[in-house]
Amino acid sequence: MSAEDAAAAEAAEDDKPTRWWTLLAVSAAQLLVVLDGTIVNIALPSAQSALGMSDASRQWAITAYALAFGGLLLIGGRVSGALGHRRAFVVGLAGFAAASALGGAAANPETLFGARALQGVFAALLAPAGLSLLTLTFTEPRARGRAFGVFAAVGAAGSAVGLVAGGLLTEYASWRWCLYVNVPVALLAVLGATFVPRVRPAHAGGALDVPGALLSASGFAAVVYAFNEAEPRGWDSPRVLALLATGAVLLAAFVAVELRTPQPLLPLRILVHRARAGAFLAITLLFVAMFGFYLFMSYYTQSALGYSPVEAGLTLIVNALAALVGATFIAGKLHGRVAPVALVVPGLLAAAAGMLILTRLAPDSGHVFWLYLVPSLTLTGLGLGCVLPPTASLATAGMRGHDIGAASAAYNASQQLGAALGTALLNTVASSAAAAYAASHTGATPAAASVHGYTSALVVGFAILLAAACLAWALLAVRGRWPGREPSTSEHSEEAAPLP
After folding, report:
1. How do the residues of the chain divide into helix, strand and coil, expressed in percent and rounded to 5?
2. Residue-wise over 405-438: b if at least 16 C-beta within 10 A, else e?
3. How far from 192 is each of 24, 94, 187, 197, 199, CA to CA, in Å?
4. DSSP code of 55?
5. Separation of alpha carbons 372 and 277, rounded Å
6. Where along the chain do its domains lie?
7. 273-288 pLDDT per residue, tens
8. What is the pTM for the complete model shown?
9. Torsion sign (Cα): 135, 136, 137, 138
10. What is the mean pLDDT of the chain?
């Protein structure tokens, strides 16, 4: 096939409206999943007051969602393949909407916690099904680049949108609308999903890997819970150490089971492939650094600069817009034209540079918004936008059958683990550094100690991103074909392009 024929074929495929309905529906679902990781954070104080939650139990409004989502993702990927990705997608959307309505109408803390856990259950089905649909629908390089660019932009902006929406809804409506707002979005996505072509379920030829399912769910849940508990209790807490040890043992047992079972829940070839491993490592370490970064942006703008929650959330719009530009106008347009490493490594370095700017902050810094926040938020947003599309594409490239759902689930699990670890790890670094500064600087103000803690944690985030860039370069900088590159004439006969 000549280059002209290939371009004509791709243009003809682009004209199919169902492809873009798929992108619209999957992007809306991605917004729901990411947004709900942050929108409830802003509403939590109001919800606590309205429902009479104790200080000790209020964390479960956040933790219940994170545990169910992170713990069940691998199972969700397998179920998605067995049901058919479109059917699983619709079931996930409907369930997420129902759970959101239940949470919004909660009359007591137990109902809210249960609803948040149900949201996590259906999100664990929804997220891998959506990414799998996108992978199967967009196969040509240019269209795939645009689709993954939009998908990544929505995901990158979702956390910031959640903070803004949470502040606005809580302040001008009610905390309950932070949950009710999911219902119309989910129903619109269901409507869009009716235009998505049906995908034949993958036949595994065997029973569900029940031991693997139990071990993965309990192992991931233990690790995520340990990360959440490390933030208030510290990493040396016996409870945290016991959870981490338990999670490590369970996940080690999960690996042993997966190596022996004929129909594994997560085929380990997905993880050990060099290029895919580079994508998983890059996205995990990026989320470790970025979620700590978002946490400190919220703390610093509200405690040091005196911003309201709404103003703090609106500040992050700079980051969301930059991510949109990076994902759609840089990564989306260059997908298939350059190797993934040419997007991933510069993206990680841009995010690292953004964090480095904020390490220069001092309690008496002037013109903070324009000299520090805007450049930092812009660089981190551009970096995030450049890394997400190629890593999402690499994670699922060349997959068939159940492997598509498993790879999609593993990619989402990498993000969840990175986010949970980053929040706990960098918050611990900040707290320890602030306490040490206050003890060694007699007469230091609380604001000075806090800013020192933030900058110390951001130095760690900067180092993590540099390490991620080095690892990505080592794993992705190889010659040969990469997913999405326009194949040569001799390569058109291959059913699936090999990874680098």
Report:
1. 80, 0, 20
2. bbbbbbbbbbbbbbbbbbbbbbbbbbbebbeebb
3. 7, 13, 9, 11, 15
4. T
5. 34
6. 17-197, 210-264, 268-486+496-500
7. 888 999 999 999 999 9
8. 0.85
9. positive
10. 85
A 10 A CB-CB count for 173 gives 12
The CA dihedral of 314, 464, 284, 261, to the nearest 10 degrees, is -160
Write down the pLDDT at residue 125.
95
Residue ranges of alpha helices (H) inside 173-237 are: 177-180, 182-193, 210-233
Query: Which CATH topology does 17-197 take?
Result: Growth Hormone; Chain: A; (1.20.1250)
d(CA 332, CA 146): 5
Mean pLDDT value across residues 335-359: 95
Token digits of residue 308: 């309201």
Q: Which two tokens stand for residue 426?
A: 């960098």
The tokens describing 295, both together, are 């946490």
Q: Which two tokens stand for residue 283?
A: 């996205």
pLDDT for position 338: 92
Residue 398 is predicted with a pLDDT of 78
Most confident stretch, 65-69, 117-121, 317-321, 404-408:
117-121
Using CA atoms, how far residue 358 sits from 338, 390, 456, in Å, is 31, 27, 10
Architecture of domain 268-486+496-500: Up-down Bundle (1.20)
Would you state the structure tokens that stand for residue 306, as one six-digit string? 């005196």
Q: What is the pLDDT at residue 347?
A: 97
**Residues ≥6 apart with Cβ < 8 Å to 173:** none
**pLDDT tens, 162-175?**
878 887 888 788 99
Two domains, one topology: 17-197 and 268-486+496-500? yes
CA atoms within 13 A on the CB side of 317: 8
The owner of tokens 């700590």 is: 292
**pLDDT tens per residue, range 16-58:** 667 778 898 999 998 888 888 778 877 888 898 899 988 778 8
Whole-number Å distance between alpha carbons of 249 and 264: 18
Integer Cα distance of 323 and 387 in angstroms: 10
Residues 217-227 have a mean pLDDT of 89
For residue 448, which of 427, 433, 464 has the smallest C-alpha distance? Answer: 433
For residue 396, give the nearest of 122, 198, 139, 199 by alpha carbon: 139
d(CA 157, CA 153): 6
Which amino acid is present at 381? G
Q: Which residues of 202-232 are buried (b: 16+ CB within 10 A; e: fewer)?
A: bebeeeebebbbbbbbbbbbbbbbbbbbbbe
Which range is least confidently modeled, 103-117, 218-232, 457-471? Answer: 218-232
Whole-number pLDDT of residue 99: 97
